[in-house]
Design the sequence.
């Protein structure tokens, strides 16, 4: 076990999982008695969500990551040589590539279970801009070891033009002896460097990767919607079955109520008949009693 392999494992985890996993690795190194490794692992910084999201490109899209690094090298070279034509071409490619790669990074983060907000998305774009401008940041990012969002380099600060480099046409000084209103013929644009083709290829690959990520996300959303639709249909069927059962219960209860009412009416009718019959019997008993009394008491 060494710090490089441990770092590769830790920075591949989601930020929320980083600290606990790092503590486990520190404990392993400490148990093995490797104090230097213990300190080196403990010094690894937890990545921000933006840095981790940007790092997913280097981990899962190595070709696009290498292409972005090459584009940064070409931009820095064009800046040193004050190659205006190349700078314009590469600057355009820069904005296209960064936009596509940032969207791809966000899709990769969502696939890994990490939500990416709009502010974090802008931080990812800032990181990619800095990768283009700063070779040290580019190396750290490509290795998957970037932990924070570096300060955004402005205008490739610190890159001095090479000795003897001709300034771009827009700032070419007028030739000696020229008169007011005379415009010198612009110098021919330098031939594009080979890295321009690489940058264009990177832009195409980034566009394809972003489109594929968008397709994957759309398909996942379609699956989620279909699952929701199936669940809704199941609920509808259950509700329909419950309604049918309730209606059947109401119908059965209505039938029982009608049967009970009929039985009650029949019982009342029999009760009335029995009352009339009992009255007749009582009258007959009284008449018979009076007759017996007359016969026995002349």
Sequence:
């Amino acid at each position: 076990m060494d710090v490089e392999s441990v770092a590769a494992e830790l920075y591949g985890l989601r930020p929320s999982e980083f600290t606990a996993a790092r503590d486990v690795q520190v404990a392993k190194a400490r148990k093995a008695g490797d104090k230097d490794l213990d300190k080196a692992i403990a010094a690894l910084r937890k990545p921000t969500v933006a840095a981790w999201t940007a790092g997913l490109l280097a981990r899962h899209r190595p070709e696009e990551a290498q292409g972005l690094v090459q584009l940064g090298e070409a931009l820095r070279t064009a800046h040193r040589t004050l190659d205006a034509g190349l700078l314009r071409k590469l600057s355009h490619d820069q904005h296209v590539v960064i936009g596509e790669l940032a969207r791809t990074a966000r899709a990769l983060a969502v696939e890994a279970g990490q939500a990416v907000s709009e502010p974090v998305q802008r931080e990812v774009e800032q990181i990619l801009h800095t990768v283009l401008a700063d070779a040290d940041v580019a190396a750290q990012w490509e290795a998957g070891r970037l932990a924070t969002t570096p300060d955004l380099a402005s205008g490739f600060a610190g890159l001095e033009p090479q000795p003897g480099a001709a300034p771009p046409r827009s700032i070419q000084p007028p030739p000696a002896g020229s008169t007011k209103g005379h415009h010198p013929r612009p110098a021919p644009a330098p031939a594009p460097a080979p890295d321009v083709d690489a940058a264009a290829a990177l832009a195409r690959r980034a566009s394809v990767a972003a489109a594929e990520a968008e397709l994957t996300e759309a398909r996942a959303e379609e699956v989620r919607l279909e699952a929701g639709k199936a669940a809704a249909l199941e609920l509808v069927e259950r509700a329909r079955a419950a309604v049918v059962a309730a209606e059947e219960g109401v119908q059965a209860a209505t039938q029982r109520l009608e049967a009970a009412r009929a039985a009650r009416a029949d019982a009342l009718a029999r009760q009335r008949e029995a009352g009339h019959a009992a009255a007749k019997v009582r009258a007959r008993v009284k008449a018979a009693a009076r007759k017996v009394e007359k016969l026995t008491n002349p």
User: Anything to note?
Assistant: Residues 3-157+194-225 form one domain. Residues 194-296 form the longest helix (103 residues). DSSP finds nine helices and no strands in the chain. The radius of gyration is 45 Å.
